[in-house]
């Protein structure tokens, strides 16, 4: 696995059932690991894989109560309304 590889929030949101807004919130509060490159927040590939496991019902996240919850209905509601408002 290439640890130097990273993804934007937009790339992750296009693949996983999560909004860009949620990803930005989780990056801001430290729920998911990310680093800034210029003005872009980048999510390491290993963190993307962890989020993917959560999204497909894999291993529980080590972040405990702050773990991203991709099954809270908010994602589906926002997608039906045309995405997030950020």
Give a structural overview.
The chain is of the alpha+beta class. The chain has a domain at 1-60: Multidrug-efflux Transporter Regulator, Chain: A, Domain 2 (Orthogonal Bundle), CATH 1.10.1660. 41% of the residues lie in helices and 13% in strands. It has 4 helices and 3 strands, in the order βααββαα. It has helices at residues 9-15, 20-29, 45-55, 74-80; strands spanning 6-8, 35-37, 40-44. A 3-stranded antiparallel beta sheet has the order 1-3-2. It starts with 5 loop residues before the first strand and ends in a 6-residue tail after the last helix.
Topology, pairings included?
Elements lengths: L5 E3 H7 L4 H10 L5 E3 L2 E5 H11 L18 H7 L6
Antiparallel strand pairs: 1-3, 2-3
Q: What's the average pLDDT? A: 74
Distance between the termini: 32 Å
Shape by Cα distribution: globular
List how many beta strands DSSP finds. 3
Given helix and strand content, the structural type is alpha+beta
Task: Provide the spatial order of strands within the biggest beta sheet.
Answer: 1-3-2
Classify the fold: give the CATH topology of the domain at 1-60.
Answer: Multidrug-efflux Transporter Regulator, Chain: A, Domain 2
So how many helices?
A: 4
Radius of gyration: 12 Å
Low-confidence runs (pLDDT<50, min 5 residues)?
59-67, 70-81
């Amino acid at each position: 696995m290439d640890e130097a590889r990273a993804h934007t929030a937009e790339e992750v949101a296009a693949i996983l059932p999560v909004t860009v807004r949620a990803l930005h919130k989780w990056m801001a509060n430290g729920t998911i690991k990310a680093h800034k490159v210029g003005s872009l927040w980048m999510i390491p590939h290993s963190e993307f894989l962890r989020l993917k496991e959560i999204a497909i019902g894999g291993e529980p996240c080590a972040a405990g109560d702050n773990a991203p919850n991709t099954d809270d209905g908010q994602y589906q509601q926002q997608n039906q309304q045309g995405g997030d408002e950020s």
